[in-house]
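Design a sequence for this backbone.
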């Protein structure tokens, strides 16, 4: 067995979930590197993060110690809420549930490594995915001198599939819940639950929703619509149906409401950072309600130019978060812009929910820019409709000038439309 020669210690801190990959990695690290393995598990609201059970399993599997930390509040307030305020959706759809969880986990993993004087950190992300980047960019941002052991990219790693890991776990009597029949890879937290693998590796095939845990299917959702009112203070959700709630309780409540009504189910093919495409099913019930409500409120209170610039930057923000670039100056700089825009994003939004549909049913804000008189068809003192004549002449001047210079040789394409003389 190869022994570490690092002068700091012989300790490796593993980002541990208790799932298939990391359960195998603990004994593998000990066998391969002859090191002491310290497990670290973050409770981000995944539902099965029992500290006692995780510690017991990690130590039984070979870890010398296991830290379990409840990071739900920090996760929502410092990672999720900023992303909601930014309106960031990767490729226009994915609400980044796994993406912003990894930098938080990696940050605390590095803090534990410093505390334990560990010479290395390790994670169970594969060489095909995005999580490897998210973990390792965070490691680099905090301490670029730390050694990183990534088993799936390690030449000594002898496994080639999840089936191989199941066989190893079985032979080493490592308790696992996954089977070769239901081999979905899942990642969950308070914000979402993702599913990959199995039939989802075949985009031409419809899955049967046999993996859902947070949501009803559309068919099983209630036949009667539900209503929910979400209140925001400077872009941050603070209350449901008029009742103020802490971040964790608020999202748990929205997850229940959204899940019952089949809101937030997403089946997509996305572009991974490493260049390949992958298909995944995501359950983000409460998060989807928050995004919709926040968007509705911004439509009411933000002026056109601010909204335009914010929508552009939201795509940049989404890419940064997806790519694991959380601890970067550019992400922090965009946050400064977003926070300035959110000073007026205060108010409440009522949503109507029906079998996956989310319909705006009322928006109120003390900073509303909507003027009923201006928005109506009647004449008002503040707006003279005749002013539009001169405005259109100026606005359309480049087109008029071009048409006059080119004559009939303009590039206007009328397609197959035919003019019929009556």
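Sequence:
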């Amino acid at each position: 067995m190869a022994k570490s020669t690092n002068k700091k210690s012989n300790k490796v801190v593993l980002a541990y979930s208790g799932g298939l990959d990391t359960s195998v990695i603990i004994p593998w690290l000990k066998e391969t590197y002859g090191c002491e393995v310290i497990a670290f598990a973050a409770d981000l609201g995944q539902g099965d993060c029992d500290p006692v059970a995780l510690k017991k399993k990690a130590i039984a599997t070979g870890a010398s110690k296991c830290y379990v930390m409840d990071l739900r509040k920090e996760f929502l307030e410092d990672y999720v809420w900023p992303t909601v305020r930014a309106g960031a959706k990767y490729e226009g759809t994915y609400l980044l549930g796994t993406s912003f969880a990894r930098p938080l986990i990696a940050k605390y993993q590095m803090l534990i490594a410093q505390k334990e004087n560990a010479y290395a950190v390790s994670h169970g992300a594969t060489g095909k995915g995005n999580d490897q980047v998210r973990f390792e960019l965070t490691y680099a941002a905090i301490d670029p001198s730390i050694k990183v052991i990534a088993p799936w990219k390690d030449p000594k790693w002898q496994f080639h599939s999840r089936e191989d890991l199941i066989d190893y776990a079985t032979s080493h009597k490592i308790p696992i819940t996954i089977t070769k029949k239901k081999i979905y890879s899942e990642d969950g937290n308070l914000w979402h639950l993702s599913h990959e693998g199995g039939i989802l590796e075949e985009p031409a095939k419809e899955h049967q929703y046999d993996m859902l845990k947070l949501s009803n299917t559309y068919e099983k959702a209630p036949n009667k619509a539900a209503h929910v009112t979400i209140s925001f203070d400077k872009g941050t959700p603070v209350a449901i149906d008029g009742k103020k709630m802490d971040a964790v309780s608020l999202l748990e409540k929205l997850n229940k409401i959204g899940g019952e009504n089949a809101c937030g189910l997403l089946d997509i093919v996305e572009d991974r950072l490493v260049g390949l495409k992958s298909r995944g099913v995501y359950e983000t019930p409460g998060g989807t309600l928050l995004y919709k409500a926040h968007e509705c409120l911004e439509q009411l209170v933000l002026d056109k130019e601010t909204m335009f610039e914010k929508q552009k930057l939201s795509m940049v923000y989404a890419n940064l978060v997806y790519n694991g670039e959380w601890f970067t100056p550019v992400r922090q700089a965009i946050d400064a812009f977003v926070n300035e825009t959110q000073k007026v994003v205060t108010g409440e939004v009522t949503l109507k929910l029906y079998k996956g549909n989310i319909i705006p049913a009322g928006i109120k804000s003390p900073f509303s820019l909507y003027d009923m008189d201006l928005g109506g068809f009647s004449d008002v003192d503040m707006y003279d409709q005749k002013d539009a004549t001169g405005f259109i002449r100026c606005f359309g001047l480049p087109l008029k000038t071009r048409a006059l210079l080119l004559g009939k040789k303009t590039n206007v394409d009328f397609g197959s439309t035919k003019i019929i003389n009556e």
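The chain is about 40% helix and 20% strand.
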